[in-house]
């Protein structure tokens, strides 16, 4: 399967961004770690009930693979909301070996500093990778259905445009591996919120499958919201991977009925 994410190690899919060679971005698989049982083997979430020493060992493995030491990673306490934090070297190491020091109540990060790795945990939710190479800016957001309908995608664009004065045409976004419409059935409660954020948009990212049941394409919904926020459509790439279908590669919260590990999405920038 050809995809903007390519598996380069058993542990790792890397974003293939030939136009931005200084950017290191990717998404982990469930393989190559030391965790056991439901977390076997490469669980990178500290908050899911796994043995923290296994998670730290897995994180160290990823740090070695990427050559980004843990002191340069930044992790958050993700709450399915839309708060986004601008981070600097001072935040380096937060949440990387203990959950208590993670940046509280935050589902998005961005930075203009090099050699920092923004790192968020996923098991079906949508990872959104933001890049404005001309401005040295990178960002990462966690968009499950709640973060998506609260429009965390649009919030990142707003912050970069209004607070950082980055022209919209300089922003690129990649929508990473997440649960696909093939495996994601939601009810009216979710679809009401989707309709509200779409504000009468014609192209709907869901299809009714039975009474009160809909197959929702969260990746496509984020893409529509990014375009509404002013991102050029040709600056948005979407991964085809479904975390639920690709059982051989990924943990899936829905497929594994809640008790499962977490993949990590990450983005950093090497020194020029
Ligand atoms: Zn699927």
UniProtKB/TrEMBL annotation:
- InterPro entries per the UniProt record, alphabetical: Cu_polyphenol_OxRdtase, Cu_polyphenol_OxRdtase_sf, Cytotoxic_necrot_fac-like_cat
Q: Which keywords accompany this UniProt record?
A: Hydrolase, Metal-binding, Transferase, Zinc
MF term (GO), any: S-methyl-5-thioadenosine phosphorylase activity
Cofactor(s) for this UniProt protein = Zn(2+)
* Coiled-coil positions: none
Reaction catalysed by this chain?
adenosine + H2O + H(+) = inosine + NH4(+); S-methyl-5'-thioadenosine + phosphate = 5-(methylsulfanyl)-alpha-D-ribose 1-phosphate + adenine; inosine + phosphate = alpha-D-ribose 1-phosphate + hypoxanthine; adenosine + phosphate = alpha-D-ribose 1-phosphate + adenine
Q: Which domain of life is it from?
A: Bacteria
Which family would the database say this protein is a member of? Belongs to the purine nucleoside phosphorylase YfiH/LACC1 family.
Protein purpose: Purine nucleoside enzyme that catalyzes the phosphorolysis of adenosine and inosine nucleosides, yielding D-ribose 1-phosphate and the respective free bases, adenine and hypoxanthine. Also catalyzes the phosphorolysis of S-methyl-5'-thioadenosine into adenine and S-methyl-5-thio-alpha-D-ribose 1-phosphate. Also has adenosine deaminase activity.
Q: What is this protein called?
A: Purine nucleoside phosphorylase
Species in which this protein is naturally found: Parageobacillus toebii NBRC 107807
